[in-house]
# Entry
Amino acid sequence: MLTVTWDGGGDGVNWTDPLNWSTDSLPGPADDVVIGAANVIHASGNHTILNLTSGGDLSITGGSITVTTGASSVAGTLTINAGTLQANGATATFAANGSVSLTHAGLFALGGGQLDLSNATSYAQGTFTTSTVRADGAASIVDLSGVTSITGTTGAINIGALAGGSINLSSVTTLTARDTNVSADGAGSTVELSSLATWNDATLLSSLNVANGGDVQVPSLTSFERGTISVMNMTAAFPVITDFDAGSLFVAGAGSSLTMAGLTSYDQNFLSTATFQANGIGSTLDLTALTSITNSTTNAIDINALAGGTVALGGLTTLTSRDTDVTADGSGSVVDLSLLASWNDATTLSSLNVANGGDVQVPILTSFERGTISVTNMTAAFPVITDLDAGSMVVTGAGSSLTMAGLTSYDQSFPGTALFQANGIGSKLDLTALTSITNSTPNALDINALAGGEVELDGLITLTARDTDVRADGSGSVVDLSLLAIWNDATTLSSLTVANGGDVQVPILTSFERGTINVTNMTAAFPVITDLDAGSMVVTGAGSSLTMTGLTSYDQSFPGTALFQANGIGSKLDLTALTSITNSTPNALDINALAGGEVELDGLTTLTARDTDVNADGSGSVVDLSLLPMWVDATALSSLTVANGGNVQVPILTNFERGRINVTNMTAAFPVITDFDAGSLFVTGAGSSLTMAGLTTYDQSISGTATFQASGAGSKLDLTALTSITNSTPNALDINALAGGEVDLDGLATLTARDVDLTADNGGSVTLTSLATWTDTAGLSSALVSNSGNIDLGLASLALEGVALRPQSSGTIDGGTLQLDAGSQLNGNGGTVNANVSNLVGSVALGANTADPGEVSIVGDFAQSAGGTFAVNIDGPTAGADYDQLVVQGTVSLDGPLTIARNYTPAIGETWTIIDNDGADPVVGTFELSPEGDIYTVGGLPFQLSYVGGDGNDVTLTRVENVVVGRHIFYNQSKFDGFSPDPDAADDNAIAPDKVPLFPGGGPAMFANITSYSRGINGIMVDLSGPHGAISAGDFTFVMSNQTGANNTPSTWVAAPAPTSVTVRSGAGYRSADRIEIVWAAGAVSNRWLQILSQGNDAAGGNNTNTGLPASDIFYFGNRIGDTGTGSPTLAITSALDEIAARNNAGFGASITNVFDFDRSGLVNATDQIVARNNGGTLTKISITNPPAAPLPATGDGSAIGWSLALDSGTEAAHEAAPATVDSRLSAGGESIDDKANAGSLPMSAVVEVADALFAADSDGESIEWLLGDDEALLDDLV
# Structure
């Protein structure tokens, strides 16, 4: 033995630093340890020493210190936080003489060792850890007598006195720490909690445990809520505890007992399952003082007497707790409830269970609503229970029985499924006293006799409960309903089931409406049942049968689907007595013969039920309808199905309107059916076929979609006898050949039905080689081929009205000449039409739908007439995938409009071949008003059309640079734009259709280049195709002529007045180009020529890039107010002749081209005369750059055009006669003015001179009439 002292030569603090000790090594088991006044910390490691004397503070913050011999002491403060202190040995003592702090402290007195920590005043649990205080062994003591509180919310503490040890916690008055477990195990073992009055853990984890003579002393403890008390192999009592709500009590061991004399009421008010249990021969849990047990949602309590134990609840009068399960299991096991008269759980979770000789004593219990009584391996009776409404009874085990002699009526009044059951040979549930069973929505009741069990209900005369399922399953199993005459469930949920030799005895039952009868693996008959309306019958198992000889009529009168079925080789549902089946909306009936089963309906003559599906599936499966002549469903929901060798026998059935016939994996024929209007036919499976030899006409006469379909390699729907298909709005018919199937309609000549869709996909084929007419006025029909599918329309010419041809990927449509009439289309992508295609008044819009791109080949000629349309989508550079392309292996003839859409921004110069014309033959014709080089603006981009693109004869579109595609003059603020000065869409109505621009190099100007509008040139439109910036007046150059004489050099002209507005109307121009409106003030540009230069990226345009034009665009318009076009080849003249012409052509309703309506008011009146009078003069007809020879006035100056447009008739003859008309109005006889002028006898200058004289300003205000009358000699010179 060595004394080791503390010298602090190391860090001066830590026990585990060897240099702090006199030996420069840690003290060991053979060492006395002496520490002076130093304060030492023990943080890690487990160290055993003989004893310890410390004059300073000692902190154990980790690891452990164990003293084994003699007295140890600490004079300073002892702190234990997450560390352990042990006194292990008969002479080992440890005294803390200073203050003590305990947190998650492990305290162990072992083998007679003692810990004196009486100076500690509190103990704190750790966080999410378990602490231990233990005294183990005789004379072992842990003295915590100064501790008044033990606290903690997330940790746990185990306090245990074992083998005669003792723990003193005598000052603790309140214990609220969670998961505190106090145990005293062994004679002389004590835990003293003599001051403890309240111990309430917020959880269910705390416990008080005494065993084998141990003692937990709690003489003051009255409240121990949510705790557990366990007593093992001893007798114990806690007489002062009065509040034990939500707690559990366990007694275990033969002869053990626990008495709770102070406990008079109990409430299971915590979310969990509490337990009261006595387990062992002679063990007793004495709760005789308890009078009331309650609880609430969602709590539970189990009361168990096991293996000869007794739970004494002889004082209990009130039991209203939910989910209370009382069990007595084992010989001598007893739960005494002898004063309990009523036990009604608001749920269906409570139960009374006796098993193996156990006994639950309830001698005065009359009401146990919603409870379950179970009896296992024994006999029991509860004769005084008269009310078990919504409850269950279960008997299990051979020879077991339950007798309920007091139960005369039963109401399943609670949601859920109740159960009456006897399971086991000779087991019996005796309910002979029961006369009435009722219930209500949504409750259910199962009554089961299983494995030789018997449910005796032979006194039952009333059964009106919904969803009641009665089942007898197994040899000797019996449900006795021998007095039941009527069983009518208001729903279709009730059932009667016999299986494997079971028997439901119903000798007088005649009515079982809406019920289901199930027979499985046995033979059964219910001969007295005459009314099974809306019910079902199901036979299952080889050789099984059900015979219903009393059933002669059946009405499926309830919403839902009823079922007649025989399933299994040789199984049979014998309904030979049944002659009539009816029903009504929205009810249905399935009749199935499966896997060799047979449904015998060979007496049935009337079948008018809606939605009746008859199915024979499997070799040997038969539904016999041999006397049925007509099967007419007012809906289109009924069906006849044969599959895999099944047979529906209908040898005299001629009429099956609105029905559906399905043939799967077999061959079938129904030759006598002649009326199948509005029906559907389906053939499915390789090599399967259906032949309808008697069907010659078909009318799809009911709303919805009917279907003719063959699906599967070599499958065939043979309709060659069919010559005509018709229908009406809003009906439809789909004819499908799929996956190698064939629909043969070779005899069909007329197809006038609406919305008929032919589909041939994946090698399928539809044959219509005799078809002469296919008309759908609704425009909903189609012929779709894909994936090597083929539709053969014969070799003749076939006019298609309202039909879309849709050749998709590798599909083919064969024909002679296919003519697209009104409403017809050619769509598709990747398919081929082996025929000539004539688009008369239909449309070509390729793609799976009109918005998608596609490529289609025509092996034949393609012709589009004026009434047809051709639509193109451009979404990218690849034909078919990105844009529409028609490939024609024949001639191409074009007319009618072309429309273009795009979702793609191409580069300039990119080209698309929209019609790939094979060979060298040229395209004949053009699209409507669309010559070679025409520009289409699509989504703001210009595309140029060519008929000589590709390899020289293809139709192509090319993205080009910006270009001006329209130049117009319009009469702003005229009658034709509503007299509005503002630029808007109404201005399009004011465009002068008889006026065209003059271009440089275009030869001398004509009257068609000059307006006579009284407001001058006040409106110009430029249609610009292509993307551009914000357009303003700065993107144009405007100059006007500065004299009336000849001046063909615009560079010498003067700047025109600035326009009052420049407005862009997107997409409003020629073929969707942007329309730029340029407006001047009235008279700002009048009696002059105006040059409009749209600036481009060249010198003339000042290298303008805003317009996007690569080069500037120049054109001219002139204005000569009041001119009717009677001038010379070189002059536009306004003279007296124009005033006279306006006077002589006065009237209403003047068109925009009327040459006499100078103010474009829609009227020719005195205002127009005044306009001519006040604007006398001339305008030189310019010729910009190398003009050709001037034409004669009557043929080349455009006057005839102007005059003819002003005439009423507007005919070609009138146009040609215009000059003569003018002459006749101005001459008195003889040669016309033009004749004289052209012959040289009268110079045109003289005409001008006279006109000028007549139009000279008259200072006296004389009228033209007066001037003419006063100078007749002058007029005579003219004539």
